[in-house]
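From the methods appendix. Each design record in this collection lists the tokenized structure first, followed by the designed amino acid sequence. Records were kept in a plain field format so they could be parsed without special tools. The example shown here is representative of the layout used throughout.

RECORD:
FOLD TOKENS (257 positions):
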């Protein structure tokens, strides 16, 4: 199949088990200046599956693209194409969604620059990286990179066991307002990464960065504000080797670190 190139299109998706774009051919997908309004249940804006080429998603006319997610079990972008997929200058807004994800990576690599993820319901993820998938750099473009997770049991970035985060730089602001939530949750082995930015932990039983498995030779140079109770700026629950922390911590919650 040939390359799909799309400019200045708007998608409205509702109902159940529907997609705005399903890419299953061998060609690349270049999607520019396109917005997605996703409602209902089990729907997705873009699905790029194993036989498809790489997805490039960007907003380049001076404004920022939008994925609006209003419903349950929704996904803005689902990646299972095994390629490197750059995403830039978009906002994912799921302020009342539940069990939803901005970008779900099943296979391949995601780079996310100038993207803002905001979710208000419970059990949500800004970026979910599954077993076998890779997260590259997360940082700034024309706007900052941010994760605002105000609902319970949610994560800005979730790295599943078996996923890869190695040699990457995460430079973003994280706000965690819900209980049992994390700015970044790392259930995988990680090494040789740089964690910058800011982490504002307002929820109880929550963390800025949770290292749940082995970690080594990484740098944390960030600011942490911990206002929730029984919460942590950085919690190293797994084995850590050569974890260099050069950060500031403002802790005001009870039984917190």
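DESIGN:
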């Amino acid at each position: 199949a040939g390359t799909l190139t799309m400019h200045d299109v708007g998608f409205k998706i509702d109902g159940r088990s529907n997609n705005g774009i399903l890419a299953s051919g061998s060609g690349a997908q270049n999607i520019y200046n396109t917005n997605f309004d996703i409602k209902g249940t089990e729907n997705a804006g873009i699905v790029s599956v194993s036989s498809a080429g790489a997805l490039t998603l960007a907003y380049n006319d001076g404004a920022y693209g939008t994925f609006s997610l209003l419903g349950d079990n929704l996904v803005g972008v689902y990646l299972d194409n095994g390629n490197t997929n750059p995403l830039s200058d978009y906002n994912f807004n799921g302020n009342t969604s539940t069990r939803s994800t901005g970008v779900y990576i099943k296979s391949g690599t995601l780079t996310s620059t100038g993207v803002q993820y905001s979710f208000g319901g419970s059990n949500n993820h800004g970026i979910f990286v599954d077993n076998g998938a890779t997260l590259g750099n997360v940082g700034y473009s024309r706007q900052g990179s941010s994760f605002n997770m105000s609902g319970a049991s949610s994560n800005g970035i979730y790295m599943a066991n078996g996923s890869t985060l190695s040699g990457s730089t995460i430079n973003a602001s994280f706000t965690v307002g819900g209980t049992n939530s994390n700015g970044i949750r790392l259930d995988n082995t990680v090494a040789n990464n740089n964690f910058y930015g800011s982490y504002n932990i307002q929820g109880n039983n929550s963390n800025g960065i949770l290292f749940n498995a082995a970690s080594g030779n990484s740098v944390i140079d960030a600011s942490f504000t911990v206002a929730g109770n029984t919460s942590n700026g950085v919690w190293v629950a797994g084995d850590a080797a050569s974890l260099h922390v050069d950060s500031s911590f403002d802790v005001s919650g009870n039984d917190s670190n």
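APPENDIX NOTE: The first strand starts at residue 4 and ends at 7.
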